[in-house]
Structure formats: structure tokens, C-alpha cells
Please model this.
Amino acid sequence: MPENHYADRPPRTPPPLNAANADLNIDREVRLQLYRRLQELRQVGNRLHELFFQNLVRGTSHLSLGMEAVSAGFGAAMRNDDYSLATYRGHAHTLSRGASMEGVIAELLGRDNGLMRGKGGSMHLVDVENGMLGSYGIVGSNLPIANGAAWSAQLRGSGQVTVCFFGDGGANIGAFHEALNLAAVWELPVVFVCENNLYMEYTPIDLVTAVEHPAASRASAYGLEEIVIDGNDVDEVYTCAQRVIERARAGAGPSLVEAITYRLGGHSRADMAKYRPEAEVEAWQGHDAIELYHRRLLSLGVGEAELTAVATDVAAQVNAATDAAKAGPPPPLEEVHTQVFADGGSSWRN
Amino acid sequence: MAELTYRSAVAHGIAQEMRRDPSLVMLGEDIGPAGGVFKTTVGLWDEFGPERVRDTPISEQAILGAAMGAAMTGIPVVAEIMFSDFLPVCFDILSNEIAKARYMSNGQLAMPLVVRCANGSGVRFGAQHSQSLENWCMMVPGLKVVAPSTPVDMVGLMAAAIRDPDPVVLFEHKSLMASKGEVPDGEVLDTLGTARTVRPGTDVTIVALALMVPRALEAAEILAQEGISAEVIDLRSLVPLDMASILESVRRTSRLVTVEENPQLCGWGAEIASIVAHEGFWDLDGPVLRVTTPHVPLPAADVLEDEAVPSVDRIVDTIRANWD
Model:
């Protein structure tokens, strides 16, 4: 099959921008923080992309370029002690909880100063201190696990909410359905967020899914509200996140949100994504989360200079984090044998 | 001291730990008011209530996922997978997630949980409800694996598994459920990774697990009448594996036989034979023998199942046929 095998399909264009979102009651400071977060996620994503092509990131990697508004919006609406679980495409979700840029970049570089000292890698970022309970490499597996974190919070009466991110492809795996059912039956404080980027790896999701919305169309099967949002409009994401997180915190049970978004790049490092219609890619480039938000903030009276300053500041931060990550030594070789068991080692016999 | 059945020892051990640790919870299919399909959880729902003893839908991934998420956020959990044959339904969560979380997170995530399941042959349920899958779990880095053979071991090893900070898969043998044994009053706590010599002997070491332990003991009794003194070791735990006890025994007997309910290919005895061949080679006076189920799915008919699984006669015959 040629590389551009789906390029002749009719393009699936972004939802029309909801201009009324400019009027949402969000503080100026919060909006500026959201903008800063979007810049951080985009610039770190771009940096990681460069580092691949310098052959400094080995293995594979899955970037969230174009999809940043979903994790940024949810991250901003979460309490510090809330829990996040992501997929192998989890860099943005980890950074959105406040993980160190150096720790994330160094983990992808396989350095000792990585978040997990090189034991996890790109697909498995974990930062428990910041509530990030992991990035899961097997599609769908994180949904049942998110239930457990939510169950624990329910048992402890801690008021913590668990937010679990997954992709459109994940809505077709059995674990999704097992998890949604149990979450509804146990009324767990969990929010499932489907990032529908329209492609299940290299295949248009609509070709392999029985319903229009892979996640949201199934919500009614579990007695849940059907929620579909523009995943590239960070104000819309943030407002929705606040609502469903508060609902969970109040004991009203789980929610399922489907955020429509788009990958600006390929599925993973090896994928140039030439299988998509050109008009589709162009349409989504015109609906870019960061550009949309930049324009909105200008329309709300924020000065161009202030936004430029944020972007410049973030660039300096990303450069410093990259330098620090690169300066890290490789992990000591004895690290191969540590942390299999709670005694710190890997011994299975006497 | 009270006489308990193996089946009631399961609930006895869990109850001991739930009284000790008010944060400990359990979940599984039919474990609540029904008391478990093998009646191994009878009384727990009554004593500890539906918050701590949770019935679940038939959703094995949801069960182990919930167990994992709770365990790694500070709630110790006992999860039941009704038959070990259902582990493949949730083997992603068990082998990819639970087992690897500590390593991949470089120690950020702890996993204090126990997965219990009914295991093994003898109830004529056929190939999807009778397997011995302990070796499947044994080979996954990060999991601990326990298979008690007596009521007192069930209580003590259950307690040890629950208190262990690592994930433990505990196999309860279906054919031992009705067996009885004395269990001391008060707290019973055993140690994972310790084999037990259940019959001393001088001529051959027989290593067995779970249902194969009483069969090995019976075989040893018959062999004794023929002048062969067999030492029987109840392995009890596959991970951690008490190789020191086996190697020490082989040093004295110079012969080793493993009795395994799993099919021969990659059964746990193969690993033990390999280690003894390496570390105990000069102690051996003869080839290591393995008595196992053949490389077949288990058949349902009683005569066929009995033919497949190692019997007392097959253990005796194997040793006798290889005796000088």
C-alpha cells in the first residue's frame, strides 16, 4: 500500500471555533497560565522532535504536538493531589502536572537525571510526587487502573479525583468497557478523557468504529452524559474539566469526555503521516490550539508584547532544561538490577 | 489449636489480616454474600461489610486494574480471579502493569497486593478450568508466586503475602479444598520463599508443590517399604525460590525428582533441574527426573485427567525405574 493510502478521503475538518468561549468566566491570570502551559508543551514537544533527529532520543516516541490543549486544560483544573494517568503519548500530560522539563527530556535521552533514571523511557513517564501515576504503553490498560486510584481516594475519603487520558483507538478495546462499567457501578471519582485525534495510529478512526464518537457515543451505555468538546480550544477544555472534576469530587460519579483534536505530526517517530488528506492537515493547522489562544488573548486585551515575553521565557526554560538533561550522565549499569522488588533488588532465589 | 479445612483457611487468613489492617480491602466475582464459588470467602462480607469486601462484574481486567490502582495509592488489596485459567484474560494488567510498575517507575510506585485464584486439576472441569498456571506467573519479573498445600500454610502464607510490599499471586488448589489440618490459635504468620521438608529421607529428594505434595508423601511411604528413603520438600513458594533448601537436601541424597502438575515444557521443575545441574552437579549420583503432566490441554473425563496428572503410582514408578 502507498504511504498516502488515505489521502484521497474527504477531509475531516475541525469543529467551528466557538467564539462565545471568549466570554467564559476565566480569570486573566488563569488564562495567562494556560497560555504559558501551552507554550511549554509545544516547545518541549518541538525540542524532543529535534532531539530525535539528532539521534539523541533512541527507541520510539509519541508527541502531542497539536493536542496540547487537552492536557493543559485538565492539568490547570486539577488539585495538586489529584491523580493523572496517560498513555504512551504522555509527555504533555506529565508536564501539565508540573513535572520537571529536565526530568522528562533526560528520561527520553536515557540519562541518570531522567524522571525514572532511564528505566521507563518515552512511553512510561511517571512522577508520583506531582500526581502523575504513569503513562501506559498498552492501549486501554490505564482505564481500569485509574478506577483503582479513584477507588482508593473514595475509600480514604480524600476528595482526590483521578483523570485518565486515552486515545480514540483505546475506546475500541475491551478494557475501556470494563472500566466504564465498573466506574459507573461504583460511582468512582474518575474522569475519562478521550483525546480523539481522528487517527488510530495510521488508520482513520471512523473506518474502524461503529459509532460517530468512539468514546462519547458509548457514554449512554454506562448511564453517562455524552460530552464532546473542541480539544483545541483550551478555554473550552478547562471549563469542561472544572465541571466534571467538581462533579467527581462532590461524589456524583464518573464522567466521560471526548475532546476532538488532531496530531500535527505522525503517530510516532517513524511516521511522517502522509496518509492524511492535505486539505485536512491544512484545515487543522488553521485550528491550532496555540494560535487560537494567542488570538483570543489579544482579543481580550492582552498585549502582544506580554505574550511574546511568555514564549521567550519558556524558550529559555526549555533550552536550560535541554542543556541540563544533556549534561546528565548515563545511568550506572547496576541500575539494570534495581527496583524489581521492594527490597530494591531483583533477586528471586536464595 | 483448631482443625480447619484448606478452604476455610483461606478466609481465616484474610480475616486475620483484615482485622489487623483496617485499610485492607478485597474484590472479586461472587466473593461477597455468596462467599465465593469455592466457599473460600465465607463470612468475610458479614464481618467486614460491602465496602471492604466488594463484589465485581465479570471483568477480570477491571478487577486487577482496580486492585493495582488502589495498591499503588496506598490501599493494600486482595483480588480474587475465580479460576487461574482466567488469568490470561487479565494477563496484561498482571504481567505488563502490576509486575513492572515498580521497575519502570524506578521505585516510585509500590504494589502491595495479592491476586488469589483457584488452580489445578481434579475436579473434571476440562481444559479451561483445571490448569496449573503457576509457571506462567513464575517467569514474569516482578511477581511473587505462592502455592500452599495445607491449611496452616494457607493461613501463614496468605498473611505473609498480604503483608509483602510486592505483588503476590497465591494459588489455591481446588483438589485440596476439603483437606483438613490443625491451625494454631492466635496470629499465624509465615515467610515467603521458604520451602519445608515435610518428610526427611536419605536416598532421594522429591520436590513438590500444592496437590503434588500429598502425592509425593504417599509415594515416599510406598518407596520406604521397598527400602528407598525419600526426602519430600514442599516448595510452597516459586518466587522467591528456596534453592538453598533444595541444594542442601541434594547434597545429602544425591538424587532429585520434581513432581509438577504443569505440563513438562518450561515447568518450574526445569528451572530447578537447571540450577541443580549447575550448582549441585558434583552432588548428583544420577539424572534429575521430572514427573509432570504431558504437553496436552487437560482432558475432562476422569480417567483421562487422572492419566495426565502425576499420580502416586507414576511418581513411584518413575523413581523405581531409575533406581540402580
Observations:
- Chain A has a mean pLDDT of 96.
- Chain A touches chain B through 50 residues (CB under 8 Å).
- The domain at 26-337 of chain A is CATH 3.40.50.970 (Rossmann fold).
- Residues 41 and 92 of chain A are 6 Å apart (CA to CA).
